[in-house]
Amino acid sequence: AQKITQTQPGMFVQEKEAVTLDCTYDTSDQSYGLFWYKQPSSGEMIFLIYQGSYDEQNATEGRYSLNFQKARKSANLVISASQLGDSAMYFCAMTGPRDKLIFGTGTRLQVFP
Amino acid sequence: EPEVTQTPSHQVTQMGQEVILRCVPISNHLYFYWYRQILGQKVEFLVSFYNNEISEKSEIFDDQFSVERPDGSNFTLKIRSTKLEDSAMYFCASKETIRTDEKLFFGSGTQLSVL
After folding, report:
1. CA neighbor of B83 nearest in space, from B21, B15, B37, B18
2. Which of residues 36-55 of B touch A (CB under 8 A)?
3. pLDDT digit string (tens) for A35-82?
4. CA nearest to A31 within chain B
5. Share in percent of chain A as helix, strand, coil (round to 5)
6. DSSP code per residue over B37-79
């Protein structure tokens, strides 16, 4: 069965610094997708970035980049130049059997001035 | 950017009552989903829906739950007789194709409180 593990329940980072949020996954599928979503205190789920299992280059979207290490089955999210508005819950997820998304337990990021 | 719209944003109900949560997926999307998130826990898959029928459902999605696409735009989740443990944030989501590399668009959620 597919599984996503996020081992950091909470992280702190100072404004303008970079932060890495960890995500490891387990799957026997050859083709899969890895996603990161942001959930602010208002509750909505905001798509941040996607990495396909066959993509050779790490995905980047503005200040977000995904450090994809396929052999280690890790898909860490790197946020550069943190902003106060980045404070939120961050979920790693992967496409599972029949395309449903399987989520990790999340990491709460707090950015302080 | 197009949006998935969910109504209401908050719903309070008494245990045993029926609730209907409503969603309007993005207009050209064909695949629809419901997820839920109990407070402080991870997001869990409930059901997927395509071509007017359920594609897959989780063990959470028992006989008390049903989904429907009554017209060309709405996608609803009905809970027939709510229980206290149904209290959660319910997210509707949609995507255009079945491709694994396509992102899922989420609505802003309905917070259901069962008293």
Report:
1. B15
2. 41-45, 48, 55
3. 999 999 988 889 999 998 888 899 999 999 999 999 999 999 999 999
4. B100
5. 5, 50, 40
6. E-TTS-EEEEEEEETTEEEEE-TT--TTEEEE--SSS-EEEEE
Q: In this predicted model, what pLDDT tens digit does every residue of B28-45 receive, in sequence order?
A: 999 999 999 998 888 999
Distance CA A93, CA B92 (A): 16
Q: In A15-106, at which residue ranges do the beta strands (DSSP E only) sit? A: 19-21, 24-26, 33-39, 46-52, 60-61, 64-69, 74-79, 88-95, 101-103
In whole angstroms, what separates CA A101 from the centre of its chain? 13
Return the closest-CA partner of residue B114 out of B82, B91, B90: B82
A99 in reach of chain B (CB within 8 A): yes
Q: How many CA atoms lie within 13 A of A5 on its CB side?
A: 9
Return the structure tokens found at B115.
Answer: 């008293």
Q: Tell me the three state secondary structure of residue B85.
A: helix
Give the pLDDT confidence score for residue B34 in this predicted structure: 97
Q: Does B113 touch chain A (CB under 8 A)?
A: no
Three-state DSSP class for A107? strand
